[in-house]
Amino acid sequence: MLGVTCSHIGYISSESPPWLVLEHECRLLKLSNKLKYRLLVKMLLINAVIVLLMFLLSRWSIGSGFLDYVNKSEQQRMTTLVDNLSDYYQQHGSFSALAEDGAWPRYVHRPRFIELEPPTPVIASKREPTHHRRERGAKYHLLDRDKRQIAGPSYKNIKSLLLIPIEVDEQTVGYLAFKQHKQIASRLDRLFIERQTANLVLIGGFLLLSAALLALLIAAQLVRPLKRMAVATQAMAAGDYQVRIAADSSEEIAALAMDINNLATSLEQNREARQHWIADIAHELRTPLAVVTGEIEAMIDGVRPSSRQGLESLKQEVWQLTRLVNDLRELANSDRGALEYHKLPMTVAEVVQQVCDSARGELEERAINLRLELSSSQQIWADEARMRQLFSNLMQNTLRYTDAPGKLWIKLYQQDDRLVIEWQDSSPGVSDEELPRLTERLYRVEQSRSRVEGGSGLGLSIVANICAAHEGRLSVQHSPLGGIAWRFSFKLIDEQ
């Protein structure tokens, strides 16, 4: 069974009015019963079709099998009658006496066909009328060697008869003919078939009733965990991401329950991350706003003169606010794919070279030694402006956090059908726990860095988004130089 472990059922909180809780419970019960009865009806329909097919096939099998049995019994009776007719012909030399009125039925239906003397004509009595004796032999036809009828009922087409030759001294002296049954004619035989059909109806009804009971149990068993899953998903829709489903049912339903639990975990983590992110944004905005407010109030109160130095400080804080807002806007746009990408064939080596040339003065000022190995001039499909932003953000990260004297090693090469860019800098490095979090928004390894020294904490998140938008692969590792090693790979343009 599946159990929902949560403080309340569905999306009705414990503070909801009783009538709302009751309405919610009734709606869940109605949904559960509706699903259960749908499953029950479908199962019953399937079982009814199966039982009906079994009934029809069984009835056809009994009817055809019994008819075949009747025909084979008649053939066995004819074989015995043929042997007796062969002996009769040996003794009398012909079958002419059997053509007399009533002789053929009496001969056919005598006990075990042991009466070998030619029958003598008799006068019909009240006890057994002549037409009754004719009916008793109406099934068989006696034909001569030329297949002309000697005795028996008339027929329209000899091809409809089953002929068995009557042989004497290996010569055919006549034929015993019989018209095989195409349907049950005997009243007793029909009664037997009717009784078997009635038994089949009773058996089918019993099977259908049993199937209905089993279907009801199975439907209830299937609906019970699904109902709990519906309760859990409604709770998640209401924002209760702590709901969990105990998975101890069948394998498939347990897998579905685990997927719902994983979804709840992911939603809970996303909500916590969103809350932390909003709190971090508020903190990041509050710091420069507090500085600006304090500076302005100090100038108004006359505590601090309205000098150029004070205005430069305000300008620096306003610039910091503007940069943070712009970074947030770009990150939000890249998250929802709103950044415009105009992808054209682009030589990555040229863009990397231009970014390095622009930052050469800052690199020399911070005593960071640059080593470039741009061994491939292959092109990729990319937006040059966005790729320039990617490498510029990496360069700013290196300039902010690499200790002087430091090293920056940029290597570009081709590997199979992909272009690889490795970006490595020297110490300080980061711990193993911090390494996968570098592209998280507003995350800084050293929270004590000042706003002037550090960035907004969004640059590396934008780097990851731009890489993903170009269908690139990104990995972050420890650098042999002591800092961080960034590795990007992009698919090359197929020159064919």
Automatic annotation (TrEMBL):
GO terms for molecular function: ATP binding; phosphorelay sensor kinase activity. The chain crosses the membrane at residues 39-62, 200-220. GO terms for cellular component: plasma membrane. It comes from the Bacteria. Its EC number is 2.7.13.3. It is an enzyme of class 2 (transferase). Pfam families: HAMP, HATPase_c, HisKA. Residues 280-494 form the Histidine kinase domain. Residues 220-272 form the HAMP domain. Keywords: ATP-binding, Cell membrane, Kinase, Membrane, Nucleotide-binding, Phosphoprotein, Transferase, Transmembrane, Transmembrane helix, Two-component regulatory system. It catalyses: ATP + protein L-histidine = ADP + protein N-phospho-L-histidine. The keyword Transmembrane applies. It is found in: Cell membrane. It is a multi-pass membrane protein. This is histidine kinase.
